[in-house]
Amino acid sequence: MTSKVRNQILALAAICLAPIVAMLVWGWDKSKPVGILSFFLTCALGWVLLVVCVRRWRWLFLAYFPLLLLSIAYLAYTLGFGIVPGHTLAILWVSASTEELMGLWGVWQDKWLALPLLALLGAYLWLAWKLPDLPIFAGRTKLATRVLLALCVPAAALVAHNVPQLFEGLALNPVTGSLMFGAGLVPRARAELRGAGIEKIPYRAHRDDATEEVHVLVVGESARRGSWSVYGYQRPTTPYLEKIKHEAFFLQHAVADANLTSLSVPMILTGMTPEEQVANGRPHGTLFDLVKEAGYSTSWLVNQDLEVSTSIGVVADHLEFPPEKDRGSLFARFITDEALLPAYRHELENGGHPRFIGLHILQSHWEYYKRYPPKFQRYGDVSKLGGLSLFDPNREVEKATTDAYDNSVLYADWFLMQVIEAARQLKVPATVTFVPDHGESLPGLDNQAAGHGGPDFYPSQYEIPAFIWVNDAYRAAHPQRVANLKANVGRQVRSHEFFYAVADLMGITWPDAKPERSFVSPSFVPDTGQYLVGGVLKAIPETSVNTAAAP
Q1: Taking the chain, what is the end-to-end CA distance rounded to the nearest angstrom?
Q2: DSSP classification of residue 486
Q3: Does the model's pTM come out above 0.85?
Q4: Are 266 and 272 in contact (CB under 8 A)?
Q5: In this structure, are strands 467-470 and 355-360 parallel, antiparallel, or unpaired?
Q6: N or C: fewer beta carbons within 10 Å in the chain?
């Protein structure tokens, strides 16, 4: 082998290894020792396998070219978003249209990097093709391969005893990570979005009037009624909602059926009562299935844990799920809810047919101070709050926590204003329904366990704000439904009843409909049961208005 050929091989090997080395550098401090060992092991075995298959230098580098492309793409995503490609990207990949995928190119600010990258890939192919057709297993390479395989044996034995870190190393390697993503996560995401594993039974729903209407459902998060000024809180946390108080229907005694998102949202979207959810487990259809049978197009715009909805078989015509960059949180995503607004406005403008648009937002989930942009930092100083501050008994920390929560409510009020005012521009009948999954306990106000999701159900965790806004065109088209809604705003309403109420707003009927569960029906009978999913009721709410002053 001449020195020229040797230099060609070294140059090609350097290009091949560059994404692998970059991934190793990126993940060195984030991975545990066994994960790093797994990374080296998979790299070594992968190269050996490819070498054994091709046995020629030229064909080795030519065969590796597709893997090089995958490695570069894998590295770019990892460096750009601070996390290896996973479930989020798989969902986006499966759900995005060709137009949306092409749109990513339009928003990429570093397009100039494509030119040197294309030049590098062109040089790689030229160098690989110009290599003489020489065998790989000759001289030192044969010995090196045997030594490498010998070292892999104890490494494999050590790694095999720690499966989580084994997969950590596989994900860190851009080649095996890409193959895992394409062969594992993408099919899983496709199955989730198709409702695989859920045995669905048709509702046989219909709608007599096929005219164009638009109905919006906003599923909120961690909204405590006692912190909304439209319900009597002394701080003006909901100035917009107070302005429209007389044109929207604010439910005065809305109650959450659970204090955990994964338990409460399924009941909102399926209509299952707490007793039914515990007894039956999995549903046989969702609100999206119902309204689609009745002739509505469906959109699901999500800034939440997507598995909450896919686990019950939510399937929509259009899914919007903004990717996240920061995964350093102890609790949740940190993309503000306004990321959903462009897609929401697009769905509103896509007229000519009946439309149902659902939004699942993060709203006021802990960590509260990361739920809103800096311009909504109106109350207090939250700069010293951290991931565990919610559980800090210090009075100053409790005050700052309350301030941060109130700022998140102020931002939620602004977000709902964007949703409603955009819908107001429509000339066709339209409604906006808001219901959160559950409430939230604040140590500074409630003297209760902080947050939500514990085994004890405190009033602040199940007393929730909820409302329905209707435009003038809807009032004119459906005066009886509006009258029924007005008559029931003062009665107790439970979150699972929103399934039937939203269906009634949309004029949908089906054989198994339960009008007694819909507060838009004249037959509504309040469910006064006290059974909640996942815990023990600690107190029965005496009033729907918490007028406690902020500290």
Answers
A1: 79
A2: H
A3: no
A4: yes
A5: unpaired
A6: N
Cα dihedral value 271, 277, 281, 284, nearest 10? -20
38 contacts 156 by C-beta, under 8 angstroms:
no
Pick the range with the lowest mean pLDDT from 92-106, 184-198, 275-289, 485-499. Answer: 92-106
Vertex 272, ends 266 and 273: CA angle to 5°? 115
Over residues 194-206, mean pLDDT: 83
Residue 486 one-letter amino acid: K
What count of other Cβ atoms lies within 10 Å of the Cβ of residue 345? Answer: 15
Q: pLDDT at residue 101 above 80?
A: no
Give residue 106's identity as a one-letter amino acid code.
Answer: G
Query: Of 84, 228, 307, nearest to 550 (Cα)?
Result: 228
Which whole number is the average pLDDT over 282-303?
Answer: 94
Q: Under a CB-based contact definition with an 8 Å cutoff, are residues 28 and 36 in contact?
A: yes
Chain centroid to CA 511: 33
Q: Which residue from 390, 438, 368 is spatially nearest to 224, judged by alpha carbons?
A: 438
The rounded distance, in Å, linking the Cα atoms of 167 and 39 is 9
* Nearest CA among 385, 399, 383, 387 for reference residue 442: 399
Q: What is the pLDDT of residue 143?
A: 62
H or E element, residue 87:
helix 87-95
Instruction: Return the structure tokens found at 24.
Output: 């190793």
Question: CA-CA distance, 252 to 32, in Å (whole number)?
Answer: 52
Query: 114-130 and 3-27 helices cross at what angle (nearest 10)?
Result: 140
pLDDT (average), residues 529-546: 57
Which helix (DSSP H) or strand (DSSP E) does residue 301 occupy? strand 297-302
**Residue 98 clears pLDDT 80, i.e. is over it:** no
Main-chain dihedrals φ then ψ at residue 470, nearest 5 degrees = -130, 145
Tracing tokens 């399937």 back to the chain, one arrives at 315
Which position has the token pair 């709050």?
385
| Cβ contact 237:376 at 8 Å | no
Alpha helices (H) in 199-327, listed in sequence order: 239-243, 261-270, 274-280, 287-293, 307-310
Mean pLDDT is highest, among 33-47, 77-91, 438-452, 505-519, for 505-519
For 314-339, how does the pLDDT look when each residue is reduced to its tens digit (9 = 90+)?
A: 989 999 988 765 444 444 567 899 99
